[in-house]
Amino acid sequence: MWKKNKKPKIDSQQKQLPVRPVSISEVKDAIRRYSAELASEIPLQVIIKEDRTIDYQLLAPYLEAEPEQTYYMSRETYEIFEEKDKQLAEDLDKVQQAVDHYRDQTGNLPIIEGDPYRKVSYLKLEKLGLLSRRPERPFFITDDEDMITHRQS
Questions:
Q1: pLDDT for 53-80, tens place per residue?
Q2: How many C-beta atoms lie closer than 10 Å to residue 77's C-beta?
Q3: pLDDT at 14 over 80
């Protein structure tokens, strides 16, 4: 017997989203709301694609659109950046991973001695082979879980 072809059901998150201007604050708000409903065993990293862009299909119930602009998200710090700051997102991830490995290997943080802002010492990371390319901007280690930031506090 021939079976009638049935159209596959399209999940609401898989349908094509309209493209419109979306501000970075709208994206941040959507991520915050998505994160609040995310099961505790699922990391927020699930919304970050390989190229550090954000998976807007997962944010569809909150944004109800796909942004015209491209936004990037750091895998390590979860900060969100505009297209012009894509390199900053990549550098944040590389330096945070290097800082974490340095701390694991030495028990210390790779900061410049006596620096009140806790500036990351690229030299210390390079000496242990943890950093292959020195970022153009300085990074600083926060008091909060030894995370790095590009903002001098």
A1: 999 999 999 999 889 999 999 999 999 9
A2: 17
A3: no
Beta-carbon contacts of residue 26 (< 8 Å; ≥ 6 apart): 63
For the beta carbon of residue 130, count every other beta carbon within 10 angstroms. 19
Given a cut of 70, whether residue 116 has pLDDT beyond it is yes
**Distance between CA 67 and CA 71 in Å, rounded?**
8
Maximum Cα–Cα distance across the chain: 81
Place of tokens 């919304």: 47
Note whether 58 and 15 are within 8 A (CB): no
Determine if residue 145 is left, alpha or beta; phi over 0 gives left, psi from -120 to 50 gives alpha, anything else beta: left
**89: exposed, middle or buried (Cβ count in 10 Å: 0-12, 13-18, 19+):** buried
Closest CA to 32 of 78, 87, 81: 78
Kindly state the percentage of the chain with pLDDT values over 90: 81
- Tell me how far apart the alpha carbons of residues 148 and 10 are, in angstroms, rounded to a whole number: 41
